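Encode chain A's predicted structure.
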Amino acid sequence: MAHRAPRIVVQPPSPSGGRRVRVDGTILGVAYGITDFLEFLRRAGLKDVESLDLEDSALVVWRGGGPDVW
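Encoded structure for chain A:
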């Protein structure tokens, strides 16, 4: 079975505090908190984003800190 890359990549915080969010290689925008991040996922068509385990999901890679770092 081929290794599949994570669908969602969250870049490290910028000096202004936002984090660029990519889904399937497409930049969705800059999130300034979890609310923004979850809205990007909804717009990308992911279902049940509120139940997604943000700390331990194979779908999400957090670069430069986890979901508590903005």
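Residues 34-43 form the longest helix (10 residues).
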